[in-house]
């Protein structure tokens, strides 16, 4: 089983799907769900370079539906904030367990995410001193 997920920085909530396979069509289904959730906003999705993320049909769909796919450099998925959430999920819902079925494991994941989403806060305090966030303070002709 595979989990596909997105972290909403505005609320801190995780939106996810668990599927038997992790191909571009399952990823595209998640994108369509996110698009339906926020129909009038431009979506920016930060992700790694996993091949289903980069498929031409996924990129074409994103371009046609006001979704920008932002790819992290290779070997830098640790920069993606959702990776810390995956670590917490593994620690609190999966480590030290011996689930007898996928249904039981999926229920543990769902319970953890429900608990987490009920207690989360917006992700706002990251990279506060980063030049990316403060680039307007640089002179116009600086190199």
Automatic annotation (TrEMBL):
Domain (Tc1-like transposase DDE): residue spans on this chain: 2-98
Domain of life: Bacteria
Residues spanning the membrane: none
Pfam families: DDE_3
Coiled-coil features, chain-numbered ranges: none
Cross-referenced Gene3D superfamilies: Ribonuclease H-like superfamily/Ribonuclease H (3.30.420.10)
Name under which the protein is recorded: Tc1-like transposase DDE domain-containing protein
Annotated source species: Saccharothrix mutabilis subsp. mutabilis
